[in-house]
Fold:
Amino acid sequence: MGLKEGTRAARLAKVGGLVGLVGVGATGCSTEEVLRFGWPVAVTPQAEAMRELWTWSVVAALAVGVIVWGLILWSIAFHRKKSEELPRQVAYNLPLELVLLVVPTIIVAVLFYFTAVTQNYVTDKSKTPDVTVDVIAFQWNWEFQYPQHKTETSNLPVSTVGSSGEIPLLVVPQGKSIRFNLRSTDVIHSFFVPEFHFKRDVFPEPEKNNQDNAFQIDQIDRTGSFVGRCAELCGVYHAVMNFEVRALTPDDFDRYIELRKSANPVTGQPYTAAEALTEMNCGELCTPHAVTTKPFDTDRTVREASGGEK
Structure:
């Protein structure tokens, strides 16, 4: 009887392993994609730290799940009722109860430790940043100010403001530490860039709401364009309150800031973000308008009542 049960268990294990391999292979995902478990590709060291915490937390959860599922299936397959005789009882089994108490406690303690370490790293602002950006949210768009850089004509901070027809570009340097100071002029919004794996609520008068309104990243690892969103329901047009992070090389960013500080000879006013990027003419990264998202079409006549386009 014991030999038959062992053979059956081995067969079930082989079938289960084969099904698992086929399931993973059928997804068509690479090993790196599988280990991200659906998270976006990180572009900052803080984001990668959170991704690693997520990966190993899921692995730990799956390991516990496999053990629990295995015990359940083992009980179903091999310990079905065979007679009216009660099986051996294990109530008041002190060693077993200690295992069931100690093992979950260790799991929770380990997860808490790594969560606290990652959180402290992600929220750390002890280092002096290379660039500071003041992020101002309002219904239903964004303004980005660079308090370290003033325009030559008005001595006001270089600023980019979005409109209903233009997605604002948050231009920052790749490879430099950046501090974001967040503030709202009306209701609560939320600053969210999926590739940062991080979002923070944007409060009106954060100091009065006891909110930490700033966060910092060590660097953006690569140049590129990354969509940003408001992640807090803030009113009618919340869903279209997007922006774009444009990460340039340090030299291109310095050139961009110099243009933003100086006056456009045609208009006599400081270069706008679009004008500065057009003037730089540095390829795809200097596209003057957002490439990851677009303004919301508010023309209600382009669709019929059925939802189809005319």
About this structure: The two ends are 73 Å apart (CA to CA).
